[in-house]
Design brief:
The strands form 6 sheets. Strands 12-15-18-11-19 form a 5-stranded parallel sheet. It has a 4-stranded mixed sheet with strand order 1-2-4-3. It is of the alpha/beta class. Helix 2 crosses helix 3 and helix 19 packs parallel to helix 21. It is 38% helix and 18% strand. It is built from 21 helices and 19 strands. Pfam families: ChlI, Mg_chelatase, Mg_chelatase_C.
Length: 497
């Protein structure tokens, strides 16, 4: 038979689109043509496949070879088409049987010795193969990752010869199994933070309602320590959330670390990061930091040091929980439901309001420094908490404060109340649901009206205060929002104005 048809996948954001690999052998001058909108790394597979087939002892057909990757208008990147192309050439030349090729999908990059290397996006490939009711043959180094998808049939292969033996019926491939020895996530403990009772309370409220948080304080007061301990206060990831976060991690340049599956992501990009690094992009769109922090925490330290244009790209995903990347030839959408925690100094020198050190900044310098963060972005931050300098008596005191375990119990109880009441966290309350679940008494309503007039809140700011107040009430196990809950929520908002 001079024609073989196989199946593979093209990664498109978090999805994997079906690709039909058609291999045809014809008479004529020897040639190897690869068509179907293939990128450079795919076109280079011609040389990898040729060398691998010859090294392992197969005959490379001395004919005109045409490989078509259909559909032709779908861009194809990555090197995982090597295995499908090699098997297709062997099947079209009669060196392998073609009867059962339609039952499989192939993903693996070939080394020149026939060794199969790991591929990106193993979770997405496995999920798509399961939905198509096909068996996925994938490189052994990526098989454990792909096996995380339940009800998917994954076969692990370390070498091209193993795949050929399986298709010939002489020796079956091993079925890949998901790792069963996953360790429980380990996070830094909140007990390590000395003092800072107000900041600890703000962190607890932010964790309970999934609210964004800005920490302001002098250098060395524990802002980074507090942010790093937020993932340990959040409830454990559900299985579907863990798989979704892992699928995004597997698309990144570093791939997926199986030991991190089930752990809340914590991403802390440097302030020199570009907008593409933050939200994703490239000629073939890749997930950025906000997507890699999906279902976790995105920590932006030294917030005013980020380029203003970089920070502005956060405005849409903070509201929608996703990012749509459009390029001339490609569009992709990635989830970005992250919890933002930012930190900054009160002034350029960092010591405005410090107990012992004098600030060297002029009022104009302070205003210019804080003006690096735009009003629309600040309007999308739910809470601002001051992290003051720690007194010597507190710093030298022995003993530990309340640990993450006790705080997480309260956070989990508050989130359980939110899920039972409205089915989602308070940070996403909208419209009629907000009017229904954010009821307050007459004194609280009067306090709100006074705050709106004096602080000139936007509608967005008003709604965010109500959501934070609702979370504070949930922590207090209160069905209605009382005046003390509103007062605390307004206090968190005043730092933004």
């Amino acid at each position: 038979m001079s024609l073989a048809v196989l199946y593979s996948r093209a990664l498109d954001g978090l999805s994997a689109q079906s690709v039909t690999v058609e291999v045809h052998l014809a008479n004529g001058l020897p040639a190897f043509n690869l068509v179907g909108l293939a990128d450079t790394e795919v076109r280079e597979s011609r040389e990898r496949v040729r060398a691998a087939l010859q090294v392992v002892g197969f005959e490379f057909p001395n004919r005109r070879i045409t490989v078509n990757l259909a559909p032709a208008d779908l861009p194809k990147g990555a090197g995982h088409y090597d295995l499908a192309i090699a098997v297709g050439i062997l099947a079209a030349s009669g060196q392998l049987p073609c009867e059962h090729l339609a039952d499989y999908e192939f993903a693996g990059e070939l080394g020149l010795t026939g060794q199969l290397r790991s591929v990106r996006g193993g979770l997405a490939l496995a999920m798509a193969a399961r939905d198509a009711q096909r068996t996925l043959i994938i490189s052994a180094s990526s098989s454990n990752e792909a096996a995380l998808i339940q009800n998917a049939t994954i076969l692990s292969a370390a070498h091209l010869l193993e795949v050929c033996h399986h298709l010939s019926g002489t020796q079956s491939l091993v079925t890949a199994l998901a790792p069963t020895d996953r360790e429980s996530p380990i996070y830094p403990d909140l007990a390590d933070v000395k003092g800072q009772s107000a900041a600890r309370r703000g962190l607890e409220v932010a964790a309970a309602g999934n609210h964004s948080l800005l920490l302001i304080g002098p250098p060395g007061t524990g802002k980074s320590m507090l942010a790093q301990r937020l993932p340990g206060l959040l409830p454990p990831l559900l299985e579907c959330e863990a798989l979704e976060a892992a699928a995004i991690q597997s698309l990144g340049q570093n791939g997926l670390d199986l030991r991190s599956v089930g752990q809340r992501p914590f991403r802390s990009p440097h302030h020199t990061a570009s907008s593409v690094a933050l939200v994703g992009g490239g000629s073939i769109p890749q997930p950025g930091e906000i997507s890699l922090a999906h279902h976790g925490v995105l920590f932006l330290d030294e917030l005013p040091e980020f380029d203003r244009k970089v920070l502005e790209v956060l405005r849409e995903p903070l509201e929608s929980g996703k990012i749509h990347i459009s390029r001339a030839a490609r569009q992709a959408e990635f989830p970005a439901r992250f919890q933002l925690v930012a930190a900054m100094n009160p002034c350029p020198c960092g010591y405005l309001g410090h107990l012992k050190k004098a600030c060297r900044c002029t009022p104009e310098q302070v205003l210019r420094y804080r003006g690096r963060i735009s009003g629309p972005l600040l309007d999308r931050i739910d809470m601002v908490v001051e992290v003051p300098a720690i007194p010597d008596t507190v710093l030298l005191a022995k003993g530990q404060s309340e640990g993450s375990l006790l705080v997480r119990e309260r956070v989990c109880a508050a989130r359980a109340r939110q899920l039972a009441r409205q089915g989602h966290n308070n940070s996403t309350l909208l419209g009629a649901a907000m009017e229904t679940h954010c009821q307050t008494d007459a004194a609280g309503l009067a306090m709100l009206q006074n705050a709106i007039q004096k602080l000139a809140w936007s509608a967005r700011a008003y709604h965010r205060v109500l959501r934070v107040a609702r979370t504070i009430a949930d922590l207090a196990d209160s069905e209605t929002i009382l005046t003390p809950h509103l007062a605390e929520a307004i206090q968190y908002r005043r730092g933004i104005e």
